[in-house]
Amino acid sequence: MLAEQEGVRPGLLMMAVKPLRKTERMEGVSAQIRGIGDEEAYYWFSKSTKSETARRAQKSLRVLLARE
Questions:
Q1: pLDDT number for residue 54
Q2: Is 56 a residue whose pLDDT tops 90?
Q3: Which of these, 16, 67, 66, 20, lies nearest to 41 by C-alpha position?
Q4: 38: nearest Cα among 8, 1, 68, 14
Q5: Nearest one of 24, 23, 18 to 62, comparing CA atoms
Q6: Which residues, in sequence order, are CB contacts of 37 under 8 Å at separation 6+?
Q7: pLDDT of 7-54, one tens digit each?
Q8: How far, CA to CA in Å, does 19 sit from each of 14, 15, 23, 68?
Q9: What is the four-CA torsion angle of 31, 13, 17, 29, rounded to 10 degrees?
Q10: Quick one: CA torsion of 36, 21, 54, 34, rounded to 10 degrees?
């Protein structure tokens, strides 16, 4: 069984890299997600999974991490 804390970052990673095509950007996003703190990871996960704000939050996270 996967603990909640261990599942937040992989969940964020999957949401953030889904629309990306360039491997370099995917690697950059992955490195950035590994480096963020627990509170920030939980914040972005909650924003990225809430139905009203999910798409905008996912795009914002990608822009922040991948420098789109």
A1: 92
A2: yes
A3: 16
A4: 8
A5: 18
A6: none
A7: 999 999 999 888 889 999 899 999 999 999 999 999 999 999 988 889
A8: 10, 8, 11, 12
A9: -20
A10: -10
| Integer CA distances (angstroms), 61 to 1, 10, 20, 49, in order | 27, 14, 12, 12
Cβ neighbors of 55 (< 8 A, separation 6 or more) are: none
> Cα–chain-centroid distance for residue 60?
10
The pair of structure tokens assigned to 14 is 């999957």
Cβ neighbours around 28 below 10 Å, total: 16
31 Cβ contact list (under 8 Å, min separation 6): none
pLDDT at 68: 57
